Amino acid sequence: MDLDCRGMACPAPVVSVKRALETANGALRVLLDDGAPRENVRRFAEGRGYQVQEEVQDGAFALTITGAGAAAVAAPQAAVAKTGPAVMLIGTDRLGDGPEELGRLLMRNFIITLLDVAEVPDRMLFINTGVLLTAEGSEVLEALEKLGNRGVEVLSCGVCLDYFHKKELLKAGAVTNMFTIAESLTTARTVVRL
C-alpha cells in the first residue's frame, strides 16, 4: 500500500499513517517531507513495534513500514487509561500569574525541585513557550537531563520549536508531534498541567 504525505503539516502525516496501518495488509510505503514529518512517522511506527526502512525517492523520503506492530495499538482507550503514564503538560516557561521574572524563577525552581520528590511523572510534554525550557540557554537543562536519567520522557512540540526557531537548539529530550501529545494526554492515568 502506498501513501503520499508530502506537504502535510503536523499531525496529519502521523494520523494518516495510523489510519493506513489499521487497514493495511502487508507493507505500507509512505512518502514524506524531510524533518519533523519523517521523524514523527518513524518514531510513531517504531514506537508501536513496526520495522521502518528509509530511502530517498523523488526528492522526498520513502519510509517502508512492515511488521505486525504492537497489539496495544488496537487496545480500548478505557483499558489503556487505567494503566497509562503520569503526564505533565508544560505550556509555558513561567509558573503562575504575575510578574514574568517571578514566574520564570518559580518554573525553574519547580523543575529543579522535581529532582527531590519521590514520584516524578513518566512523561513531560512541553508546548508553546514551554519548549523554551528544553532549548539552548535554558536554566533547567541540567535538571531535565537528570530527570531523563531517572526515566522521565521529555518531549517538546516540533511545531512550537519551529515557531520559536529553536528546533536546532533543542538540548533536552526529543521532538514530538501533536498526535503523540494528544494520545499521551488521553491515555494518561493522571495529567498535571502547568
Structural class: alpha/beta
Mean pLDDT, nearest integer? 89
Main β-sheet, in a few words? 5 strands, parallel
Percent range for β-strand residues: 15-25%
Number of strands: 9
The name of the CATH topology of the largest domain is: Hypothetical Protein Ychn, Chain: A
Number of domains: 2
Count of DSSP H/I helices: 7
Low-confidence sequence ranges: 71-81
Order of SSEs: EHEHEEHEHEHEHEHE
CATH architecture heading of the largest domain: 3-Layer(aba) Sandwich
What general form does the structure show? Answer: elongated
Strand order of the largest sheet: 8-7-6-5-9
CATH class of the largest domain: Alpha Beta
**Terminal residue distance:** 42 Å
What is the multimeric organization of the chains shown?
single chain
The rounded Rg comes to 18 Å
Compact summary:
With 194 residues, this protein is α/β, with parallel strands linked by helices. The protein contains seven helices and nine strands, in the order E-H-E-H-E-E-H-E-H-E-H-E-H-E-H-E.
Would you write up a description of this structure?
The chain is an alpha/beta fold. The protein folds into two domains: 2-74, TusA-like domain (Translation Initiation Factor IF3), CATH 3.30.110; 77-193, DsrEFH-like (Hypothetical Protein Ychn, Chain: A, 3-Layer(aba) Sandwich), CATH 3.40.1260.10. The protein is 36% helix and 22% strand. Helix 1 (12-23) links the parallel strand 1 (2-4) and strand 2. The longest helix has 14 residues, at 100-113. The chain is elongated, with a radius of gyration of 18 Å. Mean pLDDT is 89; it is low at 71-81.
